[in-house]
Amino acid sequence: MSQSPRTTAPRPSPLAFARDVFTPAGPPTPLLGRSRRRFVRAVAYVLTGAVTIMLLGTTATVLSENYGLQSDIALVLALLQAVPVLLAVRRPLLAWAIVFTADVAGALALLSVPTEGRPWPWPPMEIIGMLLLLLLLGLRERRRTLVAVWTLTAVVTVALAFVAPGRSSLISVTALVLDGVVLVVGGALRERGDARRALAEQETISEAERARRTLLEERTRIARELHDVVAHHMSVITVQADSAPYRLTGLPPEAREEFATIAATARESLTEMRRLLGVLRSEDASGEAGGVERAPQPGVERIPQLVEATVRAGLPVKLAMPDPLPDALPQTVDLSAYRIAQEALANVVRHAPGAATRVSVSVDRDRGGLMVLVVNSAPEAETPPLETSGTGHGLVGMRERVRLVGGTLDTGPLPDGGFRVAARLPFTTEEELPTA
């Protein structure tokens, strides 16, 4: 049995690998540049500026006076080793490359003068500047770049020790260890910050998706309830059209044919509506939930029962609504009013248990609409809430129902710590204002 040859990815050339490793990980965004506060963004420039001024004077003085290097050469080396620290705020990898090259050049230049037991190849001020650069580098670059930087530093340190073994000192090994520690700390801080930002972004995306899913589920639920409302009317139309020729005597053949056409059209519309509802239903809704969805939908007349059940749950609720109730309320308005009151009371039970609540249902005859008002006072201090924070998804359903009938919804906290839900559900222009 023959085996197909394995295909392996071509290995990158050493030059391409080095180019990838020493390429900055991201755009030259300033350190702390994501902060919204201006003084926080300026902290990085202030600190690096102060270190630059300190290193510039100290390096030039130490190299010329303590090590005996020519003042001109000492000044040039000091400029190359100190000034790029300012660049590290935006481009730490480039700043490190310039300073590291200047440090190596300074170590080679010190071979021309006797060091007399002084630290070599890295004087103390160069070590301080390099540690700051490596910290900034660790906060910005990838892990493999940090490993490559430390490896290159170690290789150069060992090479210089072989060039002048009598000049090497223990401080070179100490500096190499400190360099590794600083790189590890900076890299850990960067990875922790990246993880926190990724988590915050994922939480934002998840919350947006959750809100979108809740909105779609609420719209689907409303569509199912509307199906029951409209299906009832279509069924009535079908029955009336089918029975008209038997109830009304003396109908001409044209009228009988017209009634038959109306009945057939109503049946076809009802079938299409049920087919559309099948798309909206989930697979689980076809079983047990299906029987519940075909049950009569509640309306304003069921609000007293809803209030009574809430009172039994331990919430003091007062109800005010017209008696008798208006006749022939639009079914969409009737159902929406009940659902809004139901959700508002559920929110009170969850977030403000024991709070005194008032439910008011009234008919605005001047503007032609139904008013639903649910107001609760501040919750009692000794009764802990069932939920300390909410997603606001219940309010999403209220808004969708109000928008469905072209009404308005006003929700928000009250000065005394309570909450208010006020919905106005207008009657459609085609329907008459119901009478008591």
Fraction in helix: 55-70%
Structural shape = elongated
- The radius of gyration computed from the alpha-carbon positions, rounded to a whole number of angstroms, is 39 Å
Q: How many strand elements?
A: 5
Oligomeric state of the chains present here: single chain
Summarize model confidence as the mean pLDDT.
79
Explain this structure to me?
Residues 198-225 form a coiled coil. InterPro entries: HATPase_C_sf, HATPase_dom, Sensor_HK_TwoCompSys, Sig_transdc_His_kin_sub3_dim/P. By secondary structure, this protein is α+β, with helices and mostly antiparallel strands. The protein folds into 3 domains: 22-168, no CATH class; 217-293; 300-426, Heat Shock Protein 90 (2-Layer Sandwich), CATH 3.30.565.10. The chain has helices at residues 14-21, 38-66, 71-82, 84-87, 92-109, 124-138, 143-163, 170-247, 253-280, 288-293, 303-312, 331-351, 393-404, and strands at residues 317-320, 357-364, 369-376, 408-413, 419-426. Strands 1-2-3-5-4 form a 5-stranded mixed β-sheet, covered by helices on one side. Helix 12 (331-351) links the parallel strand 1 (317-320) and strand 2 (357-364). It starts with 13 loop residues before the first helix and ends in a 10-residue tail after the last strand.
State the main characteristics.
Heat Shock Protein 90; 436 residues; 13 helices; alpha+beta; five-stranded mixed sheet
